[in-house]
Amino acid sequence: MNRSSIISLIVILVIAYCGYLMLGTTSTPVPSSSEPLANNLEQAPDYYLINPRVTQFTLEGNKDYLLVADKISHYPHNDVSLLAKPNIDLYKATSDDQWKTTAKHGRLLPGGDILELSDQVRVKELKSNGELGTLLKTDFLTLYAEEEVADTQHPVVITSPNGSITQGVGMRAFLAKDRIQLFSNVRGHYEVNQ
């Protein structure tokens, strides 16, 4: 079973559980007033989750990722889920290190394997000994969960643990391999440890 099938199964189970819980309640949740109202009923979300916490495990029983958000709303007309303040922890299969990804907004595309993040996107590497590793900052990032790849065509700033800063436009990060490729307008400032 591949990662996207497992993700889909977890989402379905969470939805079914929430539906079960909602059957026992008598009050109807009120959507947030900061959300724009749908133009018609067909474009309204068919469900939403408040403060969801989803943990995905590998077939070996190890943590694969943890997804936490303020809210997830699913829209059936295009099978897209919108995430408010998503926070994703990706655990590396080859070590105890992890990548912590945050943004103001997220959009999970149909199939559940591609996540687009926007507004103040931060990707921080956290080493198993608790030290911070590389930090990536951009305003838009596409995360491919199955391949453990993140990319953007937007400007990106990369800060290394020693304080060196690299800037560029366009990037592909191979998270599992700790390798980052910048596409254009690359500039760097290297800090020498003394």
UniProtKB/TrEMBL annotation:
<protein>
    <recommendedName>
        <fullName>Lipopolysaccharide export system protein LptC</fullName>
    </recommendedName>
</protein>
<keyword id="KW-1133">Transmembrane helix</keyword>
<keyword id="KW-0472">Membrane</keyword>
<comment type="subunit">
    <text>Component of the lipopolysaccharide transport and assembly complex. Interacts with LptA and the LptBFG transporter complex.</text>
</comment>
<dbReference type="InterPro" id="IPR052363">
    <property type="entry name" value="LPS_export_LptC"/>
</dbReference>
<feature type="transmembrane region" description="Helical">
    <location>
        <begin position="6"/>
        <end position="23"/>
    </location>
</feature>
<keyword id="KW-1003">Cell membrane</keyword>
<comment type="similarity">
    <text>Belongs to the LptC family.</text>
</comment>
<dbReference type="InterPro" id="IPR026265">
    <property type="entry name" value="LptC"/>
</dbReference>
<keyword id="KW-0812">Transmembrane</keyword>
<dbReference type="Pfam" id="PF06835">
    <property type="entry name" value="LptC"/>
</dbReference>
<dbReference type="InterPro" id="IPR010664">
    <property type="entry name" value="LipoPS_assembly_LptC-rel"/>
</dbReference>
<keyword id="KW-0997">Cell inner membrane</keyword>
<comment type="function">
    <text>Involved in the assembly of lipopolysaccharide (LPS). Required for the translocation of LPS from the inner membrane to the outer membrane. Facilitates the transfer of LPS from the inner membrane to the periplasmic protein LptA. Could be a docking site for LptA.</text>
</comment>
